[in-house]
Design brief:
Elements (H helix, E strand, L loop, with lengths): L3 H53 L4 H83 L1
Helix pairs in contact: 1-2
Length: 144
């Protein structure tokens, strides 16, 4: 007979573990969004600072040129930093997805092995009953 409790326990184990992994993936995605928002805020803050700096120095031509250059460098650096952080978060998400896929595959393979073992037991039980019926049918014919 099938070990019903073993199969149910395995299914419960899968149900319990997958939400944890999904929660972890959602946390990583949330962290990614927070990093993106921080990077955008930092870039906007830097842009505003550069604009303010630019306005304060518009009366001197050389200072104006230097401020423009500095503002451009700040914006480029902020973009580079944001892209670097986004790439790192993307890598973390990819690793988390691979880990989750591997874990899910392991659980599914374990479930498949258990189901195959149980299916083998079921087949043996069926064969045993069929054999018993065949012998029982012969014995009933001889008794008549």
């Amino acid at each position: 007979m099938i070990e019903r409790e073993a199969v149910l326990n395995l299914i419960d184990e899968m149900r319990a573990s997958i939400p944890d992994d999904l929660q972890h993936a959602q946390e990583v995605l949330g962290h990614r969004e927070a990093l993106m928002n921080e990077a955008k805020d930092a870039a906007e803050r830097m842009r505003r600072e550069a604009d303010e700096h630019f306005r304060q120095r518009t009366d001197q031509h050389e200072v104006v040129l230097a401020a423009r250059k500095e503002a451009q460098e700040i914006v480029l650096k902020a973009r580079d930093d944001a892209q670097r952080e986004l790439a790192q978060v993307g890598e973390q998400i990819a690793v988390s997805r691979r880990d989750l896929d591997e874990y899910s595959l392991t659980l599914l393979r374990r479930l498949e092995a258990n189901l195959n073992a149980n299916l083998g037991q079921i087949r043996q039980g069926i064969e045993g009953l069929l054999e018993k019926q065949r012998r029982g049918g012969v014995e009933d014919d001889e008794a008549r």
